[in-house]
Amino acid sequence: MTENTGSNLGVLGKKSPRRSGAERVVNAPLPTVYGKFQAVGYLDHDRGDEQVALVYGEIGSENVLVRLHSECLTGDAFGSRHCECGDQLEAAMRAVVAEGSGIVVYLRGHEGRGIGLLAKLRAMALQAEGLDTVEANLALGLPVDARDYGVAAEILRDLGVRSVRLMSNNPRKREALVLHGVQVAEQVPLLIEPCESNITYLRTKRERMDHHLPHLDAVAHGS
Ligand SMILES: [Zn+2]
Q: Which one of 9, 73, 130, 154 is CB 3.0 to 4.6 Å from 22, fit for a cystine?
C-alpha cells in the first residue's frame, strides 16, 4: 500500500495518525487443542476488518508453511458438511504444528467467497434446490469469487515472510499472493476426504473454479 504523504501532513508538519493497510495491534498467546500458537491481531485500515494470524514456532522468512483460510462460519464453527472449510482449517493447524513452525492467516470478510454470510446462506438455499455453487451466486447477481488477498500479503510481509509454501488447492490464491508481492515456493495440497454432503460442491470447485482436487477421482459418480 502506498501512503499519500502529501495530503496527510498536519498543520504542524507531522504526519496525521490516519493510516492505511494492515496495522499490527496485539500479540497474545493462544493455546489450542493442536498446540500453542501466538494470535497476532491486525486492523485493516482500508476495509475496517479485524484480522488475525495464528503463528506457530519460530518462523523464518523463506518457504514458510502458510494457510490463507477464508472465514466460513458454517464450516469453521458449526461443522457444516456443505463445504470442507472446517476440516481444512483443522488440517492446516495440525500441519503447521507437525512442521514445527508456520502461519494460519484467518481472513475475515471472506465469508461465502467474499459475498457475506446472508448472501452465502441464500446461495446455499438455492444449492439445496439443485443449483451448483457457481450458478447460485450468479442467480443472486453476485460474483462467483469476490475475495481479495491484499491484506493477507501485508500481514505476511509484516511477519517478515518473503516466500511461502502455500497450503491450498486454489490456483487463484497462489496467483493473488504473487500479484501482491509474496513468492510462492510451493503449493501444498490440502485434500479432505469428501463426504456425501459435499461431493457435488467439491466437484464444482474442481470443474468450474480450477481447484486441484485429484483425490475426487477415487469417488464414484452418482447420486
Ligand atoms: Zn465453507
A: 154
